[in-house]
Write a structure and sequence with these properties.
- It is built from 19 helices and no strands.
- It is mainly alpha-helical.
- The longest helix is centred in the first third of the chain and has 32 residues, at about 120-150.
- It has helices at about 1-15, 25-30, 35-60, 65-85, 90-100, 105-115, 120-150, 155-175, 185-210, 215-235, 245-250, 250-280, 290-295, 300-320, 320-340, 345-375, 380-410, 425-440, 440-445.
- The radius of gyration is 21 Å and the shape is globular.
- Helix content is about 75%, strand content about 0%.
- The chain folds into 2 domains: about 1-175 and about 240-455, MFS general substrate transporter like domains (Growth Hormone, Chain: A, Up-down Bundle), CATH 1.20.1250; about 185-240.
């Protein structure tokens, strides 16, 4: 059963990453603009964030297997829609539907906590982390191959097939479980949360396109923050809220989630910056002039470490504790970006950096839910991990936006590509900012404190 729910969780990150290597070619495929094509990533990112929170809560309320099946059904429908979409509009809708599969991550952790405990739970969480890590790297590698040798729509027909297999496996192997009888649905809380999250994530994801000082960006960020503040005030006064705000505000959960935000921030800098350096012409003086296929292949060796690293994390968590593993993961991530800062002259440099960063992310993503579950009541496992997933997703969106903003603001000033292509200094800045952000995890972990989960139960 652990294998099935872990693979279902990994499908979400697989769907996120398959679009990365081909996103630059989508305007040619569908006769659209680069700005419109970027919504294929943004739409799924936002849908994944929102569904992780809402589906996570609904999973605790109505049954975790049921919600996992619903998320996978959305994945199937979205994949088919992307495969047959005649234009960018329907394809964006399909990607939004695919985004609901990201909710399988918190649901999987909730299922594991219901059926296993102790060391088995830590190993299960590590296995979920393994599949989500593999999903990111494997998706990018597969998409690179497809971009070179197969029709691009084959990616989405393959996604539909994966969804069918996952649905069948969940139906056959995962126990039905029970929700919380008598729990009431909170429609106002759901609408408020969705509006607030979507608005903020749109502002973060599109700030580089709209302009960070523009009215749309400012309106989304400020408006979303106001909506979420009002939502928090409303939820804190409800007897049966959608999300337990008191639990989120508790010191252990708050600082663990903030650490997860920084892990998310450390995830996408390499995925965004590395392919660009590899694809830039050699005439720039630092670009490698490689193909899209090679940009995907350099991440393939890290898949081996994505498989092994979570089990090493599980062993470390049982011996030194999740806190220390989170701190160690932050150091490893920072070392990976430091290596990229110093060396990025060959494909092998990116292979090594990918491996180091993959190990750091796998350890961080294994230890974060393990630490979170130390402070969260059992009946709120999927809910709390759903919130953690959306916070991590916000970190990813922020990473993508910051990386794009830095590269756009620091173009080559003279010679080949002047005023058009990002400069060498811009990439160095991206690596430095990402590494520094990862190190900020360490003081946050020190602030987590201790509190028994029974004291944090929903009142």
């Amino acid at each position: 059963m652990t294998i099935v729910v872990a693979i279902a969780a990994g499908i979400g990150t697989l769907m996120q990453s398959i679009i990365v290597p081909i996103i630059a070619r989508v305007p040619d495929y569908l006769g659209t603009s680069a700005v419109a094509a970027s919504w294929l990533f943004t739409g799924m990112l936002v849908a994944g964030a929102v569904s992780s929170v809402v589906f996570g809560r609904f999973a605790d309320m109505y049954g975790k297997r049921r919600l996992m099946l619903i998320a996978l059904a959305f994945l199937f429908g979205g994949s088919v829609l992307c495969a047959i979409a005649p234009g960018i509009e329907l394809m964006i809708v399909g990607r939004v539907l695919q985004g609901f599969s990201v909710a399988c991550v918190p649901i999987a952790i909730g299922i594991l906590r219901d059926v296993v405990d102790g060391a088995a739970l830590v190993r299960g969480i590590a296995f979920v982390s393994m599949t989500t890590s593999i999903g990111g790297g494997f998706g990018a590698a597969i998409a690179g191959v497809v971009a070179e040798y197969l029709p691009w729509r084959a990616l989405f027909w393959g996604s539909a097939g994966i969804a069918i297999l996952a649905i069948a496996a969940v139906l056959l192997i995962v126990p039905a479980g029970r929700g919380q009888p008598g729990t009431r649905f909170d429609p106002i809380g759901t609408i408020g949360l969705v509006v607030g999250l979507v608005t903020i994530l749109l502002g973060i994801s599109n700030g580089g396109v709209w302009g960070w000082a523009s009215a749309p960006t400012f309106g989304c960020l400020v408006g979303g923050a106001v909506v979420l503040a009002l939502w928090g005030w409303f939820e804190s006064r409800r007897r049966e809220p959608l999300i337990d705000v008191r639990l989120l505000a508790s010191r252990p959960v708050l600082f663990t989630n903030l650490a997860s935000l920084l892990y998310g921030f450390g995830t996408y800098a390499i995925l965004v910056a590395m392919p660009q350096i590899m694809l830039l012409p050699r005439e720039t003086g630092f670009g490698l002039g490689e193909s899209v296929l090679m940009a995907g292949i350099v991440g393939a060796p890290s898949l081996v470490f994505a498989i092994l690293a979570p089990f090493a994390a599980s062993w470390l968590i049982r011996r030194i504790g999740a806190r220390w593993v989170m701190a160690l993961a932050a150091v490893v991530l920072a070392l990976g970006y430091a290596y990229m800062f110093v060396r990025h002259e060959s494909n092998w440099d990116f292979v090594i950096a990918n491996i180091v960063i993959t190990i750091g992310l796998a350890w961080g993503f294994s230890a974060t839910p393990a630490l979170l579950l130390e402070f969260v009541p059992r009946e709120q496992s999927a809910e709390s991990n759903g919130v953690n997933t959306v916070i991590r997703t916000a970190g990813m969106a922020l990473s993508t936006a910051v990386t794009a903003a830095i590269l756009a603001s620091m173009p080559i000033t003279e010679g080949f590509g002047a005023g058009v292509l990002p400069s060498h200094a811009g990439f160095l800045t991206v690596f430095a900012v990402a590494g520094a952000g990862c190190l900020l995890v360490i003081p946050l972990i020190a602030l987590v404190g201790r509190e028994h989960p029974e004291r944090l139960k929903r009142s």
